[in-house]
Amino acid sequence: MQWTLFGILSGACIAIQAPINAALARALGSPITAAAISFLSGAVILIIIAAISAKVTGTMPAFHVPPAWFFIAGGALGCAYVTTSILLTPRIGAAAVMGLAVAGQLLAGLLIDRIGFMGVVVREITAGRAVGAMLLVIGALMIRFL
């Protein structure tokens, strides 16, 4: 149950982040600059948390050199999401952006689960999962267009 609540809290953070970043873009006059500042501030916060964690646990993470695209892919996908939400939020509203984003996440998640992408546990697309996804997509479209 706590993991479910943690997931809901994470989604709430994303919903709150979108209008904040959109306001930052208006203030700066550039959605790209706002996205860059959002990522930079997040990176600084994570560096501080990582340093505190290493100090508290007394251990440093073991660094292995992963494939080069690992360094780029997550950040590039994050940039696409944050920049898109900054551009869309003032145009279609935060609820529509979040609904459509969650629908996209769910559809991609079903595919990721189905093929076991990047070592994710393989889960079949059952009738219940397919209906749940369809309901979420329909809900997102209703929020956007009705």
UniProtKB/TrEMBL annotation:
The chain crosses the membrane at residues 35-56, 68-88, 94-113, 125-145. The lineage of its organism: Bacteria, Pseudomonadati, Pseudomonadota, Alphaproteobacteria, Hyphomicrobiales. This is DMT family transporter. It comes from Daeguia caeni. InterPro entries: YdcZ. Keywords: Membrane, Transmembrane, Transmembrane helix. The keyword Zinc-finger does not apply.
